[in-house]
Design goal:
The protein is α+β, with helices and mostly antiparallel strands. The protein is built from six helices and four strands, in the order E-E-E-E-H-H-H-H-H-H. It folds into two domains: 56 residues, no CATH class; 116 residues, DNA polymerase, domain 1, CATH 1.10.150.130. The N and C termini lie far apart (62 Å).
Length: 186
């Protein structure tokens, strides 16, 4: 392992592997060493490019949100007063029972929409409940973007069958969006 560069509490290293050398970022947090493999050396034309990727991923920062659990806590602090109490209670139930046990310890950047959709496919819930969980995940990530903790939202909008199936209102009329979509397709 060769130490490439150092900045703040972390440093870049080059790790030799039989499949090819990789660039890793190592940092210390709470008296523990952490390591994140950035990718093959060939992906980074310079040391500055690797540092740019570390900044983009927000790796090794002591401030800010790191895990989904951190994001949920931040969201609860900021959004509680903006939501109706009945909605808030529903959100908290889904978060407590379904989101935190599975995703709470995962890094924000690790969560991918495909992983969430695959997991939702294995959960024995009604389609509407699966949609609500996906929507809450979307709300959480939109909150993180708004507060600049991450720069992307894994696209939790899906065509996996958990969208609202019924495009009619209570009187049996089609929604304006579904009528407009039908006209556009014709």
């Amino acid at each position: 392992m060769k130490k490439v560069g150092c900045y703040g509490s972390g440093f870049l290293t080059r790790i030799r592997r039989t499949s090819g050398d990789v660039v890793a970022y190592r940092w210390y947090e709470n008296n523990r060493e952490h390591k994140k493999i950035l990718g093959p050396v060939s992906k980074y034309k310079s040391e500055a490019a690797a540092w740019k990727e570390i900044e983009r991923l927000r790796i090794g920062r002591k401030v800010g949100l790191h895990t989904v659990n951190d994001l949920v806590d931040h969201w609860r602090e900021r959004e509680a007063k903006r939501r109706a109490s009945s909605n808030w209670d529903n959100y908290q139930g889904y978060i407590r029972k379904w989101i935190i046990p599975v995703w709470g310890s995962r890094e924000l950047q690790e969560v991918k929409a495909v992983d969430v959709e695959d997991w939702l496919g294995t959960v024995d819930l009604a389609p509407g409940s699966k949609k609500r969980i996906r929507d809450i995940m979307h709300l959480l990530y939109e909150h993180a973007i708004r507060h600049e903790h991450i720069d992307r939202n894994p696209n939790f909008e899906s065509s996996s069958g958990w969208e609202a199936v019924d495009d009619t209102d209570k009187a049996g009329r089609e929604s304006a969006a579904s009528v407009a979509q039908g006209i556009a397709q014709a």
